Amino acid sequence: MPVSLPNYVKIKDNYCISYYGQNKEYLVQLSLLRPIIESTFKGIQIYISCEDSSLYLLEGESKILSKNETDTYRNNFAYIREIKSNLDKHPIESIMEESGLPCGPINFVKKERSTSKCALFTNGSSHTRKLSGKQITKIIESIEQNNYSIEINPLRYKSFVNDFDLVVGVENEYVYKAASCGVETTLIATGNGEDLFRKMFPKSQIIHPEP
After folding, report:
1. pTM exceeding the 0.90 threshold for the entire prediction
2. Fewer beta carbons within 10 Å, N or C terminal of the chain?
3. Residue 133's pLDDT is what?
């Protein structure tokens, strides 16, 4: 559809990245990397679009749209890019690399230890393999040696950063949220986001579970 010159001037800096799949960590990663994009390309406005059921992940942030809102206002964007899961190359890392942008590091203030509680996330989505019972047992033994009590797969996104002082898990939205808030975080590498996590949080630990 042709765009008039006056309208093009209004929308030329509006770029929308959408994701409607099950790998919700993509949305958290996008929100953390968005400042790098906008500070590098002065004037560009990056909007993030997701399903209604995922809006809680980006609560309090600006330029967040539901899928329906994006469909309604799509003429307000110069380009809408929908990303999808990719087994070979992490899609968020791909966006940054093709734009010649670094994937971090992400700045944060370290959270002081106060609760002695650990959240362990064992279930993956799509490309991320979930942990086996044997792997879970070994990881729990390792965590308990450091005097942490463990809660497995606590699904309370709004409060878990305050509830735990250690987060260990496969790739998911909780692991990235915790790391960005300064919680001690360990990624269990069972997917294809290991390199991205290392670039975003170079001081965080990454472990490879035994088969």
Report:
1. yes
2. N
3. 96
Chain length of the chain: 211
Torsion of CA 66, 69, 73, 79, to 10 degrees: 20
Q: What is the mean pLDDT of the chain?
A: 94
Q: Check: CB of residue 55 under 8 Å from CB of residue 66.
A: yes
Q: Residue 128 in 3-state DSSP?
A: coil
d(C-alpha 183, C-alpha 206), whole Å: 14
DSSP 8-state code for residue 106: P
Cα separation, 192 vs 195, in Å, equals 8
CA pair distance 186, 169, nearest whole angstrom? 7
Average the pLDDT over 178-199 and give the result. Answer: 96
CA distance 104 to 2: 37
CB atoms closer than 10 angstroms to residue 26: 26
Torsion angle of the four alpha carbons 192, 109, 122, 21, in this order, in degrees rounded to the nearest 10: -50
The stretch 19-26 carries a mean pLDDT of 96
* Domains in the chain: ranges and CATH: 5-98 (3.40.50), 117-207 (no CATH)
The model's pLDDT over 41-92, given as tens digits with 9 standing for 90+, comes to 999 999 999 999 999 999 999 999 999 999 999 999 999 999 998 888 899 9
Closest CA to 24 of 56, 70, 66: 56
**Residue 202 vs residues 5, 104, 106, 186, 195: alpha-carbon distances, Å:** 45, 9, 9, 11, 10
